[in-house]
Amino acid sequence: MPSTTLQWLSLVGIIWLQAIIGTNTNFPTYSSQLKQLLSISQVQLNNLAFASDAGKLFGWFSGLASIYLPLWLVLLIGSTLGLVGYGVQYLYITNQISSLSYWHVFLLTFLAGNSICWINTVCYVVTIRNFFSDREVAVGMTTSYQGLSAKIYANIVDAVSPHKKASAFIFLNSLLPVIVGLIAAPLVREIDEEVTSPKHTRVGFGVMFVITISTGIYAVLSSLQFVTSKVSSLGTLVGILVTLLLPLLVPLSVKIKELQENTEKVRIYHFTMEENTTSEERVENEVKEGEVQEEVGIIEEVGVKLMLRRINFWGCSNISSLVSLSSSFGFFGRLMPSLMYYFYRGKCRISRPASMLAAMVPMSGAFFLLLNKTDIVLYTSTAVIGVCTGAITSIAVSTTTELFGTNHFSVNHNVVVANIPIGSLIFGYSAALIYRKEGHEHDEHVKCMGMECYRNTFIMWGSFCFLGTLLALILHARTRKFFSQKQ
């Protein structure tokens, strides 16, 4: 199969992997049952949520593995870790295992969280290497599908097992990444060289963006109550699966075009040598243009140790509906940075740190808006937070490559995301303490419902987001000269 077709097929495989990789976002759907089975407090439950993020602390193992092991093996290792981590928990929730201690569940959750890093590393490495000149667009677009994970899992559970959601979510968490990993493993591989011309790449990404935006619109609409009340769960699931198959149209069209071109080459094989000479000159000109583009896009390559020394480095009542809403809008948030780069490439545009700053401001306001008890504010704030967190996640990947280069990206990125479990521990533990305090005041069983349980938490999180806004402003000020030179 021609390299160009394989190049686009690798992107499709990455899209499928990203679409099912967000297993940790399903934790709220079965956390209550875990809390009941283990007889644990809210603080201990929050520690389990932290355990999933804590797996990222050892994500750099997957970065090192991607350097020395075949990428398909790294992918299967990640899928297997998730199978063990979530699979044993599923057996426990369904009473197939009689007893499992709190610390057993903690370690299993940690293992499952680490599995995401392995799959993510493969996705990022293949995307950056196969679409190096368009890596910002490719990474942003594929990463956006990770925002759909919770939505996809929720649709499957609603259609297949609506009455046993907790066990169904954990079962899918363990099995679905393995199945998709086995399907995508032959597709997700590094192509020897980037063979697609800039013109064809731009057209291909244009079609991909149309498909991706259509997928996001469908995800948002199918999350709204007035739509779900009229369409069956199975119908919604079929729709989302069809949208995930649509990206195959791009490599399929490329393959058809290549077959047509090969047919034309056979017909004109006996043409004069003069035309052959002209073709060779055209190829030489394209090579020279590619060399000029590479010179313009020179990036400083920074290793892990040097990166750590750089100051720029330190710098609803229905749970499933809220999770689906946040997931759907997170999808658009992840997609927006790559859309902006696609349309304004080569033109004056704001830097990555400035984009982070722009995303932090509305997110800070959204947490304070949650102090209002109305449902419309709850859903609106959830959507805003989903968009902003998705955008920041996508921007962070591109910022890492621009500030520290691509040669050590697989390790560098996993070191950068090690901040996530730290924040998860601090914010989650603080929220649990506030919840327990309010529970003692209102209910002797330490069960708290309503705004009183979370008011102080929203104020605290909003304040931390405001602090993050100031840090993004500092990062923008420090890197402004660097990004202005790149433009």
Automatic annotation (TrEMBL):
Membrane topology: Multi-pass membrane protein
Domain NFD4 C-terminal: 315-484
Transmembrane annotation, as ranges: 67-93, 105-127, 168-188, 200-221, 233-254, 311-333, 353-371, 376-396, 416-435, 456-477
Any one GO cellular component localisation term in the record: membrane
Subcellular localization(s) per the UniProt record: Membrane
Principal cellular location given in the protein's record: membrane
Nodulin-like domain boundaries: 7-251
Signal peptide range: 1-22
Taxonomic superkingdom: Eukaryota
Pfam families in UniProt: NFD4_C, Nodulin-like
Alphabetized UniProt keyword annotations: Membrane, Signal, Transmembrane, Transmembrane helix
Name of the protein in its database record: Uncharacterized protein
Source organism per UniProt: Glycine soja (Wild soybean)
